[in-house]
Amino acid sequence: MKGTLSGAILQPMNTDAYSTWLEIDLGAIKNNVSQIKMMTRTPVMAVIKANGYGHGVLAVAKAVTEAGAAWCGVARIEEALNLRAAGVDAEVMVLGYTPPVMIPEAIVNNVHVAIYDSKLATSYAKMAKVTGKRLNAHLKVETGMGRLGMPLDRVPEFLEEYQHSDAIEIDGIFTHFARADEPQASSAEDQLKKFNVLLDRLQRANLRPQVVHAANSAAVINFPEAYFDLVRPGIAMFGLNPSPDTQLPKTFKPALTWKARLTSVRVLPPNHGVSYGSVYVTSDHERIGVIPVGYGDGYRREPGQKVLVQGRVVDVVGRICMDQSMLQLDSVPDAKAGDEVVLLGAQGKQRISAGDIAARWGTLNYEVVCGLADRLPRVYLES
Ligand SMILES: Cc1ncc(COP(=O)(O)O)c(C=O)c1O
Questions:
Q1: Residues 173, 269: one domain?
Q2: Partner of 125 for a Cys bridge, out of 15, 103, 167, 375, CB 3.0 to 4.6 A?
Q3: Strand partners, 277
Q4: Residues 231 and 263 in one domain
């Protein structure tokens, strides 16, 4: 690894300078990648799209590749080019759509793209011919996800057409599961069966691409039959459960803690409104604290939030503002301005998980971490 990636990001940072920040344990991420490697005994494509699931993509790229991930998977070509510009030299693949005009950039930067229909392939081939170099691509096939993918019956003919192409080398084939996180009622087995029938057919016709992949984090845990040549985990590397039904083994560690400092603690008199709309009104003298965190940071404007102060769970009260939120601190009479508050992660014996926050928001833990705003400083630790 070279360029801006080494050095700068691991400089210790003085958190006194911040009022709210994320602490990201790169040791936990490395541990989780190692756990996946041990479980699967299969090469890993670390899926680090959406700013490394909010954890900060360049530091995450460094950690996962140091832990032995041979590939990095992203959603968009800009994300892939960002990795290359920072000196990531692992294999890099764009799992989603790449605009044809970006194909020369993909080729020059040695980035694999996904192909999922023949029209797209034709436009990619035209662009590749302009550069005079071959594009590397993996073919994405539809087995039941209903998103991007070439219908199974068109795959053999398509691969035959490109078998000796000097514009595109299709060196991989993949699919994606819709319900691998629901082990009891899963359609993953059906998807897998269809995929295997196709692979057998390709094998017999000598058309099977070199690298076959399918398993997201949930399949890493629930479907060893889906490992093939490469596994493609995202959420598990961050120590977060793929779903309430598919929990990680205890050996995985969550990597992210969201902290803030109390910026004010006051006793408000009875019958005093708190925040916009005065939807919360003090019923007595109440100790009300302020943290400098709001929906501008990705902390949703939803009622019923909880945070940790001095190892205790306390309520967020009143409406969440863009940059600030108010806490009811009667249960922590010693709390004072400057004290650390944990919004996500552990403090003392208590922990608030991304899953807990997601349950309050009616969403999933993926959205909680992907929504963490860019303006939050990310401080990297090595456990
Ligand atoms: C094509 C593809 N593969 C793998 C993943 C990783 O999934 P997960 O984070 O559930 O492991 C994703 C994420 O959405 C994806 O879109």
A1: no
A2: 167
A3: none
A4: no
Q: Terminal CA-to-CA distance of the chain, rounded, Å?
A: 21
Note down the domain range covering 293: 256-352
According to DSSP, the β-strands at 71-74 and 45-47 are parallel
Cβ–Cβ < 8 Å for 210, 171:
yes
The two structure tokens encoding residue 364: 């999933």
Between the CA of 92 and the centroid of ligand 1 the distance, in Å, is: 15
d(C-alpha 259, C-alpha 16), whole Å: 12
364 occurs within a structural domain: no
Verify that 337 and 211 share a domain, yes or no. Answer: no
Predicted pLDDT at 20? 98
213 ligand 1 Cβ < 6 A: no
Catalytic entry in 126, 193, 276, 336: 276
Q: Which residue reads 């709309």 in tokens?
A: 277
The position carrying tokens 């604290």 is 289
Question: Residue 256 pLDDT more than 50?
Answer: yes
Residue 49 annotated among the catalytic residues of the structure: yes
| pTM (global) more than 0.85 | yes
Q: If we measure between CA atoms, which residue out of 292, 287, 294, 276 comes closest to residue 312?
A: 287
194 in catalytic set: no
Three-class secondary structure of residue 87 per DSSP: coil
For the cut 60, the answer to whether the pLDDT of residue 379 exceeds it is: yes
47, 75 in Cβ contact below 8 A? no
Q: Which CATH number characterizes residue 131's domain?
A: 3.20.20.10
139 within domain boundaries: yes
CA atoms within 13 A on the CB side of 379: 17
Please tell me which residue in 49, 62, 140, 259 is annotated as part of the active site.
49
Checking if the pLDDT of 235 tops 90, the result is yes
What is the spatial distance between Cα 209 and Cα 96, in angstroms, rounded to a whole number? Answer: 19
Q: For residue range 275-317, what is the model confidence (pLDDT) as tens digits?
A: 999 999 999 999 999 999 999 999 999 999 999 999 999 999 9
Reading phi first (left if > 0) and then psi (alpha if -120 to 50, else beta), residue 192 is in: alpha
**Total structural domains within the chain:** 2
